[in-house]
């Protein structure tokens, strides 16, 4: 039964992503805003909901250490395998604003997180934690980011006020498609994580390894499937916006909200992972500057980077 539910979960993920991308891209046209903004907000927040759910539940149940590993593992997966596979399917077009502002903001969020967890080095504490005050700082950065997105959306609406939207694109239908798609993504992701974890334990995998691999990858499946579907539909702005937005949302909202509930302990191993996340974000920024797209060859490099990272964490743990 576990294997059947795993297959059902994947089916819900794929069909949900199909509905979600169609609905959200049409909503962008109805709102007269760039698809990248929908990717950075509605799509990325929706596909990050599994990370938020897993991390917040873990904090409430007293296993807060899972939260940081889940977010870092998911972001690494997004930056490498998700971007890589989407770019291999269809080269990802990158807007100049994404290069100048959104990807650098992802790097800023990662750097802020690294500084906040360095309690032993910076403040000579006995241990490293993401405290409640750290969580408030992360949430304030999220408010700054959302203010920027809202400002860009308003400017875009004004400049595209005269744009004609095809009559067959209706609000009601696309809102329903988006909601149904999101529901399928969340339910499918939950089924995949729960049953995939159960199968992994039955194979004798350790709890730490399951957290870094199955749970992190499982909660990132919505981003993977949504970005692949978006790339196949040539909605590359949604594909890239989803990934960039998800990583920002994971750090600033998921870790911010979770640490406000309860301080998160930080293991020494995580410092390497966050440094790697910074390097990969810089790599994505460099790739994006080459002809304003992430091409197939660059996609293969990112996929290879994930394989190397996965081998490393398996050996490390």
TrEMBL record:
Domain Sodium/calcium exchanger membrane region: 3-150, 175-314
Main location: membrane
A single MF term (Gene Ontology): calcium, potassium:sodium antiporter activity
Gene3D superfamilies named in the record: NCX, central ion-binding region
GO biological process, alphabetically ordered: intracellular calcium ion homeostasis
Taxonomic source organism: Oceanobacillus limi
Keyword field: Membrane, Transmembrane, Transmembrane helix
Domain of life: Bacteria
Protein name, entry field: Cation:H+ antiporter
Membrane topology classification: Multi-pass membrane protein
Gene Ontology annotations for the cellular component aspect, listed alphabetically: plasma membrane
Transmembrane segments: 76-92, 104-123, 135-154, 175-193, 209-231, 243-264, 270-287, 299-315
Cellular localization per UniProt: Membrane
